[in-house]
Each structure stands twice: as C-alpha cells, then as structure tokens.
Amino acid sequence: CGLYVWPCAVVLAQYLWFHRRALPGRRVLEIGAGVSLPGLVAAKCGAEVILSDSEELPQCLENCRKSCLMNDLPDVPVIGLTWGRVSPELLSLAPVDIILGSDVFFEPKDFEDILTTVYFLMEKNPHAQFWTTYQVRSADWSIEALLCKWKLKSIHVPLHSFNADKEHLASSSLPGRHTIEMMIISLARSDGT
C-alpha cells in the first residue's frame, strides 16, 4: 500500500514533466496516490494539487503527507477517497481539470469502482481528463466494456511521444512482465465519440 514508487508512477511523472507548461493553475487530483510521485511533480510544476488514497488505509494517507513534507509541499491537501464510495470528501471536492492515477488498474474487482469515481468527478467538469498509466498484467485485462457502460472514452498515449520509452523509466527490477501503457480517459460525447 503506497510504500514504493512503482514504474507506472515514474512514467506518469514523466508525462507530467513533459507537459509541465500546461499545468500551472490547473486543478489536479491524484487518486490512489500512495507515495504521490505524479501529484508532487504536478504541484512542483504549478498545478493546484489534491492527493487522495483510500480512507480505509490511514498509513497510505500518512505516506502522502510525509511525501509532501519531504518535497517542501506542506500545503498540498491529502484526503481519504475510497473508489466507488460517495463520501462527504468526494461530494465537497471542487471540480478538477485532471485526475491522475498510476497503476490504479491493478485488481479487476476495483476497475468499476475506479471508473465510477472518475465519472462522478467528470460530471462536475465535463472537460476533465483522467491521465492514467498501468502495467499490462494479463491478456484478459480490459476496461473497454466499463468505459462504454460509464460513457467514457480512452485515447492510448504512446510512451515514445513523451520520452518515456527508455528502459530506465518504464522498466523495473521486479519480477514479471512490465509493459507499461498510458491512456487518457474522458467523457464520451452524446454521439458516442
């Protein structure tokens, strides 16, 4: 739980750094933040950032706070948000422009809860985007049906388009296959596009 900087976080942080000129003044929420590398990079680049992790994992929330302090960002708010749960914290959030999530698509049982939360946030700001990196762990892994159900669309972002295809960024010494992918999820228009 949020104790390690996973390769997906490094790749998403690289995307944020590559697009740093677009971040000042943007409202950014990182979900499942863990040690919060992407959110902290966004904050250092001038975004108004809120970090979140499960309200049921106080140690993860504490790790977010410690990461903020270690990076001279003591004023970045850290809130408990549990995917799929409509909580007072979720309801009181101001509209965000960008939602960040690195390696949140880990357990298939959580996929719909994640997209439910993302959809709720996008209803507040229909122009918002969900920037997410994930590790391909199974050929069966797919959120296409859920995207359709929640009227969301995704665009694949090739890693080479933001210089993240380098082995030191997108790979890991951890065992197993480590194909990292990135996509941007947004609301589908009423005509389905």
From TrEMBL:
Chief site of localization: cytoplasm
One GO term of the biological process aspect: methylation
Pfam families linked: Methyltransf_16
Quaternary context: Interacts with HSPA5, HSP90B1, TUBULIN, UGGT1 and UGGT2. Interacts with TET3. Interacts with STPG4.
Known role: Histone methyltransferase that dimethylates histone H3 at 'Arg-17', forming asymmetric dimethylarginine (H3R17me2a), leading to activate transcription via chromatin remodeling. Maternal factor involved in epigenetic chromatin reprogramming of the paternal genome in the zygote: mediates H3R17me2a, promoting histone H3.3 incorporation in the male pronucleus, leading to TET3 recruitment and subsequent DNA demethylation.
Gene3D superfamilies in the cross-refs: Vaccinia Virus protein VP39 (3.40.50.150)
Catalytic activity entry: L-arginyl-[protein] + 2 S-adenosyl-L-methionine = N(omega),N(omega)-dimethyl-L-arginyl-[protein] + 2 S-adenosyl-L-homocysteine + 2 H(+)
Organism: Struthio camelus australis
GO cellular component terms given for this protein: cytoplasm; nucleus
One GO molecular-function entry: protein-arginine omega-N asymmetric methyltransferase activity
Annotated family: Belongs to the methyltransferase superfamily. METTL23 family.
SUPFAM superfamilies listed in its UniProt record: S-adenosyl-L-methionine-dependent methyltransferases (SSF53335)
Name of the protein in question: Histone-arginine methyltransferase METTL23
Localization: Cytoplasm; Nucleus
Keywords in alphabetical order: Chromatin regulator, Cytoplasm, Developmental protein, Methyltransferase, Nucleus, S-adenosyl-L-methionine, Transferase
